[in-house]
Amino acid sequence: MSVPKDRKGALTGVLCPLLRFLNRDGKLRFPLISNYVSSRFRRVLQLTQEADMENKTLEEKLAELELCANSANDLSELRRVLDAQQQCFECYLKHKNGVEHPGTAADCNCICHEILLKMLIFVDGENTGRVCFKLIDHNLFNEALAMKRFEKPEQEGEEDDGWNFVLRRVDTPDHYIEVDGVITNIAISVDKKQLFVSYETRAFATSTKYSVYCVDLEKMVLDKFPFSGAMLSNEQAFLCSNEFLLASAVGEEVHIWARRHGGNAVQRLAVDTRIVDLSLHPTNNTLITASQNYLAVWSTTQPN
Predict the structure, then answer these.
(1) How far is it, in rounded angstroms, from Cα 231 to Cα 210?
(2) pTM
């Protein structure tokens, strides 16, 4: 839903449930919404949906897609358009046909034209080492606004134990990535193309090891190499990023990395009391840390 621009729009706003997830403790942790969904991820989900409707496996659908290409050049073009911003292979075939034979191009309703697509990112409440991804399209919004997703069918009898009613309305993630620890926080980059995941693992009998990894949201894979300079602590971790930097706070210490280069931390900051949250300005290198008693503002010094 769009943000109301006037009082009348605010008065006509509707708040309604959109998604329901079923897990043992009923919690989703660190939910984020991204306006960016990579074309490769969209196309894979579309192929999965098509395979499900046709009672085929995803491998069979991919094999069919390769058979649609007439030459190796078309296959290389397939790889290119899968990574493009606004086009998938189905679009490529239709648009190419329309250029070569004007008037014959079919209407293209493929998922790559969905400008309202968003992606819900969250940590599973039951599997604390799993970060999940759910594609949200305009159909979900329309069904939620019409309350169709949560209406009880008339044919559902009163003697029903309720499980059928619940299970028909439970949403599952479209994709997930697991790490070998407990996720303590996640943060998304300004361009929405990187997700930073902090998690902790047991290092010794009395301490934990804290690590930060990056998820490439264009390829939906976890970077094998973490940001170096992992901290040992039993405190809660906090994470944020901006255009240039990645910052993480554990206990009374902040580690700062160059976002695009990774590697070792470029700066370490220390405060007198435990940090309860932190935030980076989206474009300039200003950092605010919140402690129990005060706020501290950190900024890079400008040369004379």
Answers:
(1) 5
(2) 0.71
